Fold this protein.
Amino acid sequence: MAAGDNVFLFVPNLIGYPGWRWAAVSFYLMPRSPGPAAACYGLSALLDAIDGQAARLLGQGSRLGAMLDMLTDRLSTMGLLLNLALLYPAAAPLFQLSTALDVASHWLHMHCTTLEGGESHKAVGGEGHPLLRLYYSSRPLLFLLCAGNEGFYCCLYLLHFGEGPPAPPLICICK
């Protein structure tokens, strides 16, 4: 990265900006239009995954980009959890707790990484907790856990509006 490069115009950030807009549109649609809201939220998540790949492929990773990525991830999940709290009032304290833990833990980890001079919160050295090192060092595990978490919340959101299409009948082979 050259000294004159404008990090705001890096390709990963240019991919991320529309993702933020799609997330905002999804939050607007969530109370009344589950299909379009889920599609917009999914598009936002897809762009978030692509921007990280682009940063690594193009060598355009930056501390600002890592912070923006983490912040937008937290805000996207928070928006979905706020909608879930509205749709499932009895479970609102659990959604609030999940939001608080998510934001606080990521902020603390990012802050510590920044104070130590790290370029990204995903670079956990040998001094980090073994589970945190495993989480950030294995891209497939990181993707699986993040996608599973978001998928669970998205399914819970969609479940509020209906049980979905009927499943195909299962063939019983145990006769």
Summary: The radius of gyration is 19 Å. Residues 34-58 form the longest helix (25 residues). The mean pLDDT is 85. The CA atoms of residues 86 and 131 lie 33 Å apart.
